[in-house]
Amino acid sequence: MKLKDKKIELLKQVHTRDEQGFTKTTLEPVTTVWAYFRHLSGKEVFAAATTNYKEEVLFQISYRADITTAHIIRFHGVLYEITRLDTFEGYKEDLTLYCKRKS
Description:
By secondary structure, this protein is mostly beta strands.
């Protein structure tokens, strides 16, 4: 068992229309949970004389059936997109969230 000692916030995207009919996307909090956190990799990509940094991380939380790849995670003020969910052989103890830093 890994120590879940980091507090993360799960957010959902909400789409609304303003007075002119334009769609506005906002993030609304769903819940705050305790998680295990680990960096998976860091890749630097050099293109057009600029450096882009792609950060991939893993969060492991207690099992929740209501989490999907449409949710966003906020950890230390940084937003992460969930790219994959893993329930480890279908057991409903932990849920592993593979994420990439939102640009």
